[in-house]
Write a structure and sequence with these properties.
Layout (H helix, E strand, L loop, with lengths): L2 H8 L3 E3 H6 L4 H9 L4 E4 L2 E3 L5 H8 L3 E2 L1 H7 L10 E4 L16 E6 L2 E6 L15 H11 L2 H14 L4 H8 L4 H8 L8 H12 L4 E7 L3 E7 L4 E6 L1 H4 L2 H16 L3 E6 H6 L1 H16 L1
Parallel strand pairs: 5-7, 10-11
Antiparallel strand pairs: 1-3, 2-3, 4-5, 6-7, 8-9, 9-10
Helix pairs in contact: 5-6, 6-7, 7-10, 8-9
């Protein structure tokens, strides 16, 4: 592996000229790598590997960095259902309209994608060249996304170990009281952001929900409604679409049923698009098991 490739891989595929030079890469080696296609000159002072993240490349070509939910996705966190690309640029960027007044962002189409350009980048943020730092990412998500999505993103950051609980407390201290309390209650352990969202909605219905509850001969279930005999599983096809996993899910459901526990399985699409139906299924299951 070439020295420049090693440096770029460690930086997520995109690095500054300064970073490459400080790593021992000579200018002539950069020029040669660009000439033979092993390296891309994305914009002045920034180079990328050809297989770098397309979203990151677009953000850099636009003069900014991935931010908010788009940065969250790059860190492997829950990024909700917003398929727009969020990019943050400096206030003196050419992307900022001259008549911005009090406006803080604009939505435009860049290279065929809907991009939300935010112009409040902080030069003190010393994360990689193509995305904001984890803490700033979470702060942005809390400002720009709904609280439900933000809570799921924060919990996924805790579960993956990207941030510590102390960081979450620090972030929560700058929020409104209600939002701060919600974020302070975030804990690691949720297996997906979708699981967090379902838990939040069930709690709003008045249920006390145990996450990753352990059941005899079943193993862990995503959510168990305490005081009832109902468990809820939130299934993504990527993890439950194989023949082996399909059979294992059926075995687990049978073991739970033998113990008098009803297992309700919902998909991401159910939660996103059909929540009133999901809610009705849960309420009916609780009533029927209790009767």
């Amino acid at each position: 592996m070439d020295n420049f490739e090693r440096i770029l891989r460690s930086a997520g595929g995109i690095a500054t000229t300064r970073g490459l030079f400080s790593g021992g890469v000579a200018p002539r080696h950069l020029a040669a790598a660009v000439a033979d296609g092993r390296l891309l000159r994305v914009r002045r002072g920034l180079y990328a590997l050809p297989d770098a993240s397309p979203a990151a490349l677009l953000a850099v070509r636009a003069g900014g960095r991935l931010a908010g939910l788009s940065a969250a996705a790059s860190y492997g966190l829950w990024d909700g259902w917003d398929d727009r690309l969020h990019v943050v640029v400096p206030r003196n960027s050419a992307m900022v309209p001259k008549t911005r007044r009090e406006q803080l962002r604009s939505v435009r189409t860049i290279e065929g994608r809907t991009v939300v350009v935010h112009w409040n980048d902080d030069p003190r943020d010393v994360a990689w060249a193509w995305r904001v730092s984890p803490e700033r990412c979470l702060r942005q998500v809390l400002r720009w996304a709904d609280l439900e999505t933000a809570t799921a993103t924060v919990e996924s950051a805790l579960t993956t170990g990207l941030v510590e609980q102390e960081t979450v407390y620090r972030i929560a201290s700058g929020l409104t009281p209600s939002a701060g309390r919600a974020i302070e209650r975030c804990r690691p352990g949720a297996q997906s952001g979708l699981e967090t969202i379902v838990r939040l909605r069930l709690e709003r219905l008045g249920y006390v929900v145990e996450r990753q509850a352990s059941l005899s001969r079943v193993g862990h279930v995503d959510l168990r409604l305490l005081g009832t005999r109902v468990a809820v599983e939130v299934d993504g096809f990527a993890f439950h679409g194989s023949r082996a996993q399909f059979g294992e899910d059926r075995r687990r459901d049978a073991e739970a049923a033998a113990q008098g526990i009803v297992t309700l399985r919902f998909t991401a699409e159910h939660v996103r698009d059909q929540w009133p139906w999901v809610e009705r299924m849960v309420l009916d299951a609780v009533a029927n098991v209790a009767s």
